[in-house]
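New to this. Comment on this protein:
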Amino acid sequence: MGAKRAQSGLEYLVTYGWAIFILVIVIAVLWYMGAFNGISFAGSGISSSGFSSFRHIDSKVNNTGAVVVLANSVTRSITINSITVGVTDETADSACTYSPLAVSANGILTVTCSSVPQGVINYPGSRYDLTVTIDFTDGTSGGNHIDIGFIGGKVGTS
């Protein structure tokens, strides 16, 4: 009687074992082909967070550099002292310039990096996560402020 139960259990394991094995192989192949890579479905996938005095308008990163466009959310004019663009926990890129120096209320600020910020994997379709640090002076109070924001997306083509 125990032999029949053992044979039934063994048949159960073999039958479902093959099904589970095939399912694991299919999932592994799909994973290898990038079917579970969420960024591949995100389009440009640009997202931003953390800014309090600026609003992220647009950004573009490719294998030759980066451009970040921000709007002044402070209700008065400000003067930019410095801007650094880099990757979290990495050295900021010093090859970035910005214009204009004085930004009016709701004015647009463009940051252009002539090289890809350090730490960005710069092949098309890879993900980038930038940290933008802006040191500015309030035009009314004269106080210095620092605003830090994070921008992420997909590296584009040249």
